[in-house]
Amino acid sequence: MPMKLHDTLSRSLTELRPRDGKxxxxxxxxxxxxxxxxxxxxxxxxLQDVFRRTLEMSGLETLHVRNLTDVDDxxxxxxxxxxxxxxxxxxxxxxxxxxxxxxxxxxxxxxxPSAVGHIPxxxxxxxxxxxKGHAYRADDGSVYFRVSSFA
Length: 151
Prior knowledge:
With 151 residues, the protein is α+β, with helices and mostly antiparallel strands. The chain folds into two domains: 4-114, HUPs (Rossmann fold); 118-151, no CATH class. The chain contains four helices and six strands. A two-stranded antiparallel sheet has the order 1-2. α2 packs across α3.
């Protein structure tokens, strides 16, 4: 029996199939590493793990990518308050997160890109979203997603 999920873009139930016929690729949001993850955070990661294991048990190969948010207002604020560099601060919380994942027997993602390692790509994506009318700059300089462009 094929697995189906609700596709928010097409607003329909869609059968999950690998685009290349072999490997099901999926991206999941990961943690913001500024403190210990809590049970509400781990609910998300447990569900990601169950989803991946279900795909793999059905015979599909997977490519699971989960990001680490290691630069944002909270990581910057808390690293400065601790007297550590941003890298030192987030490395500690990343290690704690991975230890907790191991304790829960969660499969590690195949790739785990960091936000700080992809800033130029994020800037380019934001610029593209703004050019296409999917994002806008507020008076304070912040950029927000234009929800009405998706609705």
